[in-house]
Amino acid sequence: MLAKRIIPCLDVRDGKVVKGINFVGIKEVGDPVERAMFYNEMGADEIVFLDITATHEGRGTMADVVRRTAENVFVPLTVGGGIRSTDDFRTLLRAGADKVSVNSAAIKNPELISDAASSFGSQCVVVAIDAKRAAAQNGDEAPRYHIFVHGGRIDTGKDAVKWAIEAERRGAGEILLTSMDTDGTKNGFDIDMLNAICSVVNIPVIASGGGGHIGDFTEVFQKTDADAALAASIFHYGELSVGDVKKALAETGVPVRIV
Questions:
Q1: Contact 247, 256 (CB under 8 A)
Q2: Which of 74, 103, 133, 160 could form a Cys-Cys staple with 128, CB 3.0–4.6 A?
Q3: Catalytic: 11?
Q4: Is the dihedral angle over the CA atoms 44, 46, 47, 52 positive or is it negative?
Q5: Domain locations in the chain as residue ranges
């Protein structure tokens, strides 16, 4: 079994790392390059940068921040926010990103996934899905999940499970799945949503939204087929370290990379 990955996420706005709850109540928590270097030293398996207002504000992602980070961090770096074209992929990959995450633009133009996978390889293409449980309709028994775009501002009405299947078919190499219902709450990952997605795709799925206690990480790997768990608040505020999480996982038999 491949080692499970622990991934700190840095949401960036106006050049600063920020964090909110349920995508609102945003607070600044530090400099992105400094935070990334800190997590690199802590033993993070990867680092994710998300420019959370780039799409909403109609501008590109912060290539300079990516470049400075790549010069000082030696674990894979995924960058997203404001990606609209394969040229944006090229810019970020040249700046030092290992993977590029797309959300809103891929919903608007699914061919972007195919084009990017063809140009740069599926391993570079991460499709981010921000989803929220929707009200059941027509006697639905299984939960339904709607995709939101533009930093969680717009409900597309698009089904997250069907979209995950399409994203894989079009060449996505990984899915970053964020539950808007659990994001920032520290009450645990959305196990039901993760299982709904993991059960229909064969590419890695990153669990995001809700990690607050060591037990949450153990649970997500024991109860789902997620390949990685991403968190922000608990790491930013020093409530847990990447090392704490990995030690606990190893003690329960979950394979992790210990540095």
A1: no
A2: 103
A3: yes
A4: negative
A5: 5-251
DSSP secondary structure code for residue 2 in this structure: P
| pLDDT, tens digit, 9 for 90 and up, residues 132-184 | 998 766 666 678 999 998 777 889 999 999 999 999 999 999 999 999 999 87
d(CA 151, CA 180): 10
Is domain 5-251 annotated with CATH 3.20.110.10?
Answer: no
Instruction: Taking the CA atoms of 255, 248, 36 and 90 in sequence, report the sign of the dihedral they define.
Output: positive
| Residue in 45, 130, 183, 190 annotated catalytic | 130
Residue 38 CB contacts under 8 Å (≥ 6 apart), including other chains: none
* 181 tagged catalytic: no
8 A C-beta contact, residue 210 and residue 223: no
Three-class DSSP category at 233:
helix
| Total count of residues recorded for the chain | 259
